[in-house]
Amino acid sequence: MADFKVSSREQGQVRIIDVRGYLDAHTAPELENEFNKLIDNEQFKVVVNFNDLNYISSAGLGVFMAYVETMREHNGDIKFSNLKDDVYNIFDLLGFPVLYEFYDKEEDAIVKYNQ
To answer: What is the DSSP-derived secondary structure letter of residue 95?
Structure first.
């Protein structure tokens, strides 16, 4: 089983999701559970911090596609921060930069929500 950990924390009105390890078909349900909790608690402004993520598969990418519409329907969004180059390249290859906002630092993504 791949090593994966997801946790979240609050920064004002924004929820930060920290992902660590390997996000694939086996671990994606953990991230889905985190998004479901956010929706249940009506927290729709999300920044995903990828600082400690080493790998993401198509199943992991699919989690973000599954939830972004719900977040946006409630005046929120999913923004990405702190991606390592090899993880960002996977997002870039599949056209995610057209659909999502990417930031070098978590703080920059949070500020964008407050503008």
So the answer is: T
- In angstroms, rounded to a whole number, what is the distance separating the alpha carbons of residues 62 and 67? 9
Report yes or no on 115 lying in a domain: no
Cα(63)–Cα(61) distance, rounded to whole angstroms? 5
Does residue 22 lie in a domain region? yes
| Domain region containing 23 | 4-110
Please give the tally of structural domains in the chain: 1
CATH number at residue 83: 3.30.750.24
Give the DSSP H/E element, type plus range, for residue 46: strand 45-56
Could you read off the pLDDT tens digit of each residue along the chain, which spans 115 residues?
A: 569 999 999 999 999 999 999 999 999 999 999 999 999 999 999 999 999 999 999 999 999 999 999 999 999 999 999 999 999 999 999 999 999 999 999 999 999 998 8
